[in-house]
TrEMBL record:
Cofactor(s) demanded: FAD
InterPro entries, sorted: Cytok_DH_C_sf, FAD-bd_oxidored_4_C, FAD-bd_PCMH, FAD-bd_PCMH-like_sf, FAD-bd_PCMH_sub1, FAD-bd_PCMH_sub2, FAD-linked_Oxase-like_C, Oxid_FAD_bind_N
Organismal lineage: Eukaryota, Fungi, Dikarya, Ascomycota, Pezizomycotina
A Pfam entry, by short name: FAD_binding_4
Membrane-crossing residue ranges in chain numbering: none
Protein name stated in the entry: Similar to Vanillyl-alcohol oxidase acc. no. P56216
Gene Ontology BP terms: lactate catabolic process
Amino acid sequence: MASDSAAPPPLLSDDCHTGVPSRYFDQAVESRTRLHSNRTLPPSIPRQQQVPILPPDVTRETFTTAISELQNLLGNGNVEVNDKPLVDGWYMEHPNTHDAFHLVDQEDLVSSAIVYPGSTEEVSIILKWANQHLIPIYPISMGRNLGYGGAAPRLRGSVVVDLGRRMNKVLNIDGDAATCLVEPGVSYFKLYEEVQKTGLPLWIDTPDLSGGSVLGNCIDRGVIMGADCGWGKGYTPYGDHWANHCGMEVVLPNGEVLRTGMGALPGRDDADNPTWQAFQHAYGPSVDGIFSQSNFGIVTKMGMWLMPATEHQSYCISFPKDDDFEQIVEIIRPLALQRILGNIPQLRNVIQEIATTAKPRSHWFKEKGVMPRELIREIAKTLPCGDCAWVFYGTVYGPEETRNRQLEIIKKEFAKIPGSVFKLPQDLPDDHYIHSRVKINSGTPELKELDWLNWLPNAGHTFFAPITPTKGKDANIVYDIVTRLHHKWGFDCFPTWCVAGREMHFIANVIYDRGDPDAKRRVNGMMHEMIQTCAKEGYGEYRTHLLYQDVVAKTYGYGNQVLMRFNEMLKDTIDPNGILAPGRNGIWPKRLRGRGFELLGGDFEAPKAGSD
Ligand code: ADP
């Protein structure tokens, strides 16, 4: 999968589930060329440690026997040992062997092998095999969770179950109910293409980058970019993916297959239930939630709601002063609560106007250390949005009269901030970021957000992603902590606020050079300090990189860690052998708990203020 060749990027139409639709081919080539031109690291370096890296408590002999058994069960070609040089690749040709955006040594977060099931039955077989040999496994759908650990397992040496390669069908699109049912390997690109083929007036909801798995993003409750390059959530009125999923098929750690929601009630002659994708709650306890951001089951099918296509109008509003921030948030809240803001809008710091030009930071600033605010101001003066501090990107939906009325109110409210400037896409040049927002905010896939990664050579990124109420004072506390600590640890700060209504997801995209061990050390130090400092004020992350999952889990410590103790009780009951994704989201099974696998330390020395 990961490739460093100059061969054309893989295409969806060549039956490559990770590929790009042909209509994005040129954009993909351009993006890759730009990224590679910033690279100073070799495509791969020889492995330093004995390969494959084994999971704990498993001898090389047991591993070899178990793997050949798995090859017999699933076919030789469907099990690969991870013993080749590691290639980071790039977004459209990402690895499934390790964390491509490594924040520790490249070989530290790696699997021992990768297995490719072709059906739910084969997933069950893998789980039974894992129980028999006490080999930990880690499911991925697409493995593009870049910024949060990519395709790497939390526990090194686990066997990665790559569901996407052979389970990547859109199983159903119901045009009347506006729903779909997908397998793990369906990307937003693919779902979009399949919906287009039906000719139905339906939208998908895609995150900033569209190569992620529809199911994987939803199960991880993704919210933005993502890096998932992952950048996870979407931005239409259906932007909360988890809220718009409906019905799942899950293989439990013992290999049994469970269906959630109405799917638990078989349809006539054992067909799928006719309301499986229509009603989320069904009967009895709602169990869907325990399969998201957890390690209680492997999801093999998921229903999602599609949005009936509608007219739309995107816009942006710039605000001149850094200190306008609190007032902007106070204006946003009532507009969001009244649903006058039609989608999940973004409030972005002006530095991102610079980053989305796709020019490297060195184009503007050759020094080490944080880019000075004065310089950002000078650069911004030369860009279409001008000398401003914040830019709000939104979209309204529906017939013209509705949109006009909403825009009238939005303009009037934000005009209370002196110096704010309202612009429509036609007021901005063709290569301005807003045109990418128009597409994303109307459910059309994109690759534009990759431009971030040109900021530094060999750039990787992770996200610091706390939640705050949509209130100026709370948001300001978090913003102050994050900017102060970026300054202390020597990183440019890229704040984006994604507004859901009563709360906002704050996403600070931390960009670092993967070839610079000191930068990686500082990212780790900064992440630990941001997590702890925000937690002291009562603000917690909604999602985090594998390396910080234990510490973030610990911050949710109300009642003497009762939530974690409850999760552990579930884990030990559902997965008594502790084979499924041990340690994911801080949930360790009894067999491995307290044996030193938890990553709780923050032993990273801070540099002097602002140094690099
Ligand atoms: P994406 O490529 O969309 O970012 P991934 O496949 O990387 O999504 O999945 C994100 C995370 O969600 C993974 O690291 C994994 O822990 C979890 N996950 C993904 N797919 C499944 C699944 N089918 N069942 C259970 N957990 C999953």
